[in-house]
Amino acid sequence: MTPATTLPTAIRGPVEMLWNYHDLHHDPQPTDIGIGLGSHDLSVATCAATLYHRGLFPRIVFTGANAPTTIDTFPRGEAVHYREHALTLDVPDAAILIETTARNTGENITRTRDLLTAHGLTPRSVTLISRPYQQRRAYATCRRLWPDVDVRCASLPVTLDDYIASIGDTDRVVSMLVGDTQRIWLYAERGHAIPQPVPDDIRDAYRALTQAGYTSRLIN
To answer: DUF218 domain: from which residue to which, for each copy (predicted)?
Structure first.
């Protein structure tokens, strides 16, 4: 069966609420390094290339191995495919480093930091480039694990409906959005990220979507 690519009217309200919550709306500013966080979404590499060409950072690190959700799309690893895509967008090979072992956001951060240290680089500021709905979690994780750097977040500008169409699977996008929302407070409780404000309307939207069955990306 072909996955649906249209957001059902019944859940549009809570989905839009979570979508807007996770996008931190940081204004792009120059930083020392751009870090493309591995995922199923190739637009991360597109965004990194775009910001590089705008002169917002002189070097990019793509970080990511594989996950069950990416192995079919990026069989050689997320960072490897991101790098290849950035090269087609005229980012010079010399401006790209890849970290190919990270399997979660925490490892993306710590292993990128270690890779940069091995190359004699100690950035004071970084731009984390991710899926739109990963920004808040990436920010909170980086602030916990790499507190010495100033952190900005970026994603390719896109509407919710256009993003769902680009991924081609409404259920997948909504489920991952719900999963990232749960991780905001769960990872803070476990010490993996700094706490983030979670207003009541965000928790209500989260509950509405879990009750509607979008639970496949939740942590038990």
So the answer is: 44-150
